[in-house]
Design brief:
The protein is mainly beta and 95 residues long. The radius of gyration is 14 Å and the shape is globular. The chain has one helix and eight strands. The strands form two sheets. It has a four-stranded antiparallel sheet, with no helix packed on it. A four-stranded antiparallel sheet has the order 2-3-4-5. It has one domain. It comes from Noccaea caerulescens (Alpine penny-cress). Keywords: Disulfide bond, Glycoprotein, Signal.
Length: 95
């Protein structure tokens, strides 16, 4: 479970997954960006944006693996975007 304001950092601090907004916009996006620690004073650059066409208009976004094993972006308690369409019956723990 990842909430807006939290981030996941990759091994060796190269990338991070987080909610962010573009300049002059309050819309929020979930994306993978280069970690500025890795870039040595160069600003973050987006690498992949999950909800480019479905922005979240406020800071209520979260990323969750639901009970069926689907990876979902939520807006509050409502599903905004499914990032996986496959349901699993096994372990749904992220590591």
């Amino acid at each position: 479970y990842l909430k807006d304001g939290q981030e996941l950092v990759s091994a060796f601090n190269i990338f991070k997954l987080k909610f962010f907004n573009f300049k002059n916009s309050s819309n929020r996006y979930l994306g993978i960006v280069y970690n500025n620690l890795y870039l040595n004073d160069i600003q973050e650059r987006d690498v992949w944006i999950a909800n480019r066409n479905n922005p979240i208009p406020e800071r209520s976004g979260s990323l969750k693996v639901d009970s069926l094993g689907r990876l979902r972006i939520l807006r509050g308690a409502s599903s905004l975007l499914d990032l996986s369409s496959t349901q699993t019956t096994g372990n749904t723990t992220l590591k």
